[in-house]
């Protein structure tokens, strides 16, 4: 068993991103409707927030609803939107009292009006909190985010606010939603439920992120599972294109 004391003695990932997969399959195993799994998944989110704050993680981003998820059965989409509104209302005071700052990325204008209203209320109430920044990726798709950045760049070039010859990867990054919100790239990506895909999630940001996959379904993902993922991260050497020798000499 991995202890928090052991974790804190090593390098803590500043930003953890999670693909919370397996809610529907978990519900099916229990003989329940898919939405039951999503409700149970909220409990795992709550536990992940608490654990990250305790360990000292600065940012936690969860993939709550993708742009592709709009293509699901309308009844499930409506149920998910209702669940989201309910969670925003119920968790608002707790997040505020525990010093958690909430931000959101994604095509927020696609959300139903009530979802937008409750999400903004949650963001506004917690905006000055400092213990942990909890980022909700909702109505989010990385290809959408990159396309949005390209449109914004094109508009600035058209308006003579940007020279086309000055466009490079550093320029493009400034138009990426996470950068604009002051959110750094993830150090660690966790995906649950035995899937080995990125699923259009933070494609730009994951260029040098450590990937961790687990068979555990999201509703069963516990504090111990999260600590195990962090422990695995701490056992790796992040080279960022350099050799092991270069990394070793940097740390001497």
Write up what this structure looks like.
The protein has about 250 residues and is an alpha/beta fold. The protein has helices spanning about 5-10, 25-30, 35-55, 75-95, 115-125, 140-160, 170-175, 175-180, 225-235, 245-250, and strands spanning about 15-20, 60-65, 100-105, 130-140, 190, 210-215. The protein has a six-stranded parallel β-sheet with strand order 3-4-2-1-5-6, with helices on both faces. The two termini are about 30 Å apart.
Set out the fold topology.
Layout: H1 4-8, E1 15-19, H2 23-29, H3 34-55, E2 59-66, H4 74-97, E3 100-105, H5 113-126, E4 132-140, H6 142-158, H7 169-173, H8 177-180, E5 188-191, E6 210-213, H9 223-234, H10 244-251
Parallel strand pairs: 1-2, 1-5, 2-4, 3-4, 5-6
Helix pairs in contact: 2-3, 3-4, 4-5
Query: Strand arrangement, largest sheet?
Result: 3-4-2-1-5-6
Largest sheet: 6 strands, parallel
CATH hierarchy class name: Alpha Beta
Structural class: alpha/beta
Q: Which CATH architecture?
A: 3-Layer(aba) Sandwich
Helix amount, in percent?
40-55%
N-end to C-end Cα span: 31 Å
Order of helices and strands: HEHHEHEHEHHHEEHH
**Number of separate domains:** 1
| Global geometry | globular
- Residue fraction in strands: 5-15%
Mean pLDDT: 94
Low-pLDDT regions:
none
């Amino acid at each position: 068993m991995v202890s928090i004391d052991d974790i804190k003695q090593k390098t803590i990932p500043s930003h953890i991103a999670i693909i919370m997969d397996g809610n529907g399959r978990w519900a099916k195993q229990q003989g329940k409707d898919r939405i039951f799994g999503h409700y149970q998944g909220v409990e795992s989110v709550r536990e992940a927030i608490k654990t990250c704050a305790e360990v000292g993680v600065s940012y936690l981003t969860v993939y709550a609803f993708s742009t592709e998820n709009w293509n699901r059965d309308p009844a499930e989409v409506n149920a998910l939107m209702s669940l989201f509104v309910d969670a925003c209302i119920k968790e608002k005071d707790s997040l505020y009292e525990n010093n958690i700052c909430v931000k959101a990325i994604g095509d927020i204008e696609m959300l139903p009006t009530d979802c937008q209203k409750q999400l903004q209320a949650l963001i506004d109430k917690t905006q000055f909190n400092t213990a942990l920044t909890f980022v909700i990726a909702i109505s989010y798709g990385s290809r959408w985010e990159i396309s949005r950045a390209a449109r914004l760049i094109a508009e600035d070039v058209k308006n003579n606010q940007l020279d086309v010859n000055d466009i490079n990867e550093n320029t493009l990054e400034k138009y990426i939603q996470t950068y604009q919100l002051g959110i750094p790239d993830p150090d660690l990506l966790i995906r649950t439920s035995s899937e080995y895909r990125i699923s259009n999630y933070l494609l730009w940001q994951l260029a040098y992120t450590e990937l961790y996959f687990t068979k555990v379904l999201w509703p069963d993902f516990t504090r111990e599972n999260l600590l195990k993922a962090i422990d695995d991260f701490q056992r790796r050497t992040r080279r960022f294109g350099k050799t092991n020798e270069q990394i070793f000499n940097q740390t001497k």
